[in-house]
Amino acid sequence: MQTQSNRPRTRAYSLSLDSLRHRRKGTFRVVEVAACHSTHTSAAKAQSGLVYMWGQCRGQSVVLPHVTHFSCVDDVFACFSTPAVMWRLLSVEHEEFLTVTESLKREFDSPETSDLKFRVDGKFIYVHKAVLKIRCEHFRTMFQSYWNEDEKEVIDVDQFSYPVYRAFLEYLYTDNIDLPPEDAIGLLDLATSYCENRLKKLCQHLIKRGITVENAFSLLSAAVRYDAEDLEEFCFKFCINHLTEVTQTTAFWQIDGSLLKEFIAKASKYGAFKN
């Protein structure tokens, strides 16, 4: 789309190279030269990349070409002319462009381009074998020629829920996860099963951000179950700092007996039960 400035019209002038002399001895080769009749300002760009200006500059007259700090001739007219003008038409073009990451994200769960689909809880998730093999060691092994899964077009999954498995597959395309903390526990289980250490860390971070008095003991139990030591320590300290509130929740009374004993023993070492 071509748009023309509402400023006074401008035109470019061809000037002889002999008229554009540096203040020091010698000449410079010009690759672009422009002038605006309404502001009496001129500018030129040398082959070296330096930009010069002369003529009217904010009410003052510059007789000889003067080196500026600009890298573009347009900046001379924008900053030194009164009023500020453009010496040529402004071209504004909107170019549709997707990065590799954006393209992959767009193609996730796309029936048009997929060559494989997972069926979870009766729902389909459309994916691409190549992406899964590149991003996940579990799938790289699964899709070896001697495995039956390599020839299947539909793979049934019953170990994990639909939200959890979809979030996992989407993570392989986007490197991000977006789940509530309660579902992130299931994703943490999946990450542990598939030996996805980075995903495991992301899940722990997500769970930490979503911990509350109501779910603290549930998250602590999950951290112990999936051997997430950093998350376990975080949840434990949260429970200690909110001991009165968390012990009155439903999750506290549903906690495993052995874990409860371990929690009480550890909490006593922290002085949680001192009078």
Describe the structure.
This protein has 275 residues and is of the alpha+beta class. It has three domains: 30-80, no CATH class; 98-192, Potassium Channel Kv1.1, Chain A; 211-274, Serine Threonine Protein Phosphatase 5, Tetratricopeptide repeat. The protein contains twelve helices and nine strands. It has helices spanning 73-79, 100-107, 129-135, 137-142, 162-174, 181-193, 197-209, 216-225, 229-241, 243-246, 250-253, 257-269; strands spanning 2-3, 30-36, 41-46, 51-57, 60-67, 90-91, 116-120, 123-127, 154-157. The strands form three sheets. It has a four-stranded antiparallel beta sheet with strand order 2-3-4-5, with helices on one face. Strands 8-7-9 form a three-stranded mixed beta sheet. Helix 5 (162-174) crosses helix 6 (181-193), helix 6 packs antiparallel against helix 7 and helix 8 packs antiparallel against helix 9 (229-241). The longest helix has 13 residues, at 162-174. The radius of gyration is 33 Å and the shape is elongated. The N and C termini lie far apart (76 Å). InterPro entries: BTB-POZ/Galectin-3-binding, BTB/POZ_dom, SKP1/BTB/POZ_sf. Residues 114-181 form the BTB domain.
Give the SSE map.
Blueprint: E1 2-3, E2 30-36, E3 41-46, E4 51-57, E5 60-67, H1 73-79, E6 90-91, H2 100-107, E7 116-120, E8 123-127, H3 129-135, H4 137-142, E9 154-157, H5 162-174, H6 181-193, H7 197-209, H8 216-225, H9 229-241, H10 243-246, H11 250-253, H12 257-269
Helix pairs in contact: 5-6, 6-7, 7-9, 8-9
